[in-house]
Write a structure and sequence with these properties.
Length: 135
């Protein structure tokens, strides 16, 4: 699923629009550098890990890690101000989209099934069929 997401985003990137990080660290603060599965971040970030205000989208693929990804990890991302987080539930074959972080929680949560479509909030022209990465 991570490889599929990478391909989908790589095929839609225009020059200098965003960079794609695959299982690379991000800097939430001085003490926290998690390694999300996929991150779209500002193309001007070079030589260091992207910070929350430079991240457009973060995606986690979850099978056995679902409770952790939807619990402590999601809270940390919301506290840091990550704009949009996708948690892809590989077991139940669904996608959970979280937007609008506020004080450790996301104000908006969407649940999409395999036959759904998802749009990247920061790039409204990027709409993906969920079944292209959640098979």
């Amino acid at each position: 699923m991570v490889d599929s997401l990478n391909l989908l985003f790589a095929n839609r990137v225009a020059k200098d629009r965003y960079r794609i990080g695959i299982q690379n660290p991000i800097s939430l603060d001085s003490y926290s550098e998690p390694q999300p599965d996929v991150v779209l971040y500002d193309s001007s970030v070079l030589g260091r890990h992207p910070r929350p205000n430079e991240i457009f989208l973060l995606a986690e693929v979850a099978d056995t890690s679902l409770s952790y990804d939807l619990g402590p990890k999601l809270e940390a991302y919301a506290r840091a101000g990550i704009r949009e987080v996708w948690v892809i539930d590989a077991i139940r074959r669904r996608m959970l989209v979280h937007r609008q972080p506020d004080q450790g929680h996301y104000q908006t949560r969407l649940e999409l099934a395999v036959d759904g479509m998802v749009t990247v909030d920061a790039f409204p022209d990027i709409t993906l069929p969920v079944n292209t990465f959640l098979r």
